[in-house]
Design goal:
Elements (H helix, E strand, L loop, with lengths): L1 H20 L14 E8 L5 E8 L5 E6 L3
Antiparallel strand pairs: 1-2, 2-3
């Protein structure tokens, strides 16, 4: 009886996880245009400055410069 109860609980958990995964929208080609990537990263030798660019799939990127005060 205990094994049957465990099996029912495991099947219920498995079914709930599989139903949760189906609620996500599928990826299509329109999603890729909003993706961005980080490139051209640079860290100063003393570790006080960090610079990097964030580039979209289309268009101009942004340069970010961060300072780390110690």
């Amino acid at each position: 009886m205990r094994y049957i109860f465990r099996a029912v609980v495991y099947l219920f958990l498995l079914a709930s996880f599989s139903l949760h995964g189906q609620s996500k929208p599928p990826l299509d080609h329109t999603i890729y245009d909003s993706w961005q990537k980080i490139s051209n990263h640079w860290l100063s030798p003393d570790g006080h400055y960090l610079a990097y660019t964030v580039d979209p799939q289309q268009g101009d990127g942004m340069l970010y410069i961060k300072t780390f005060d110690q």
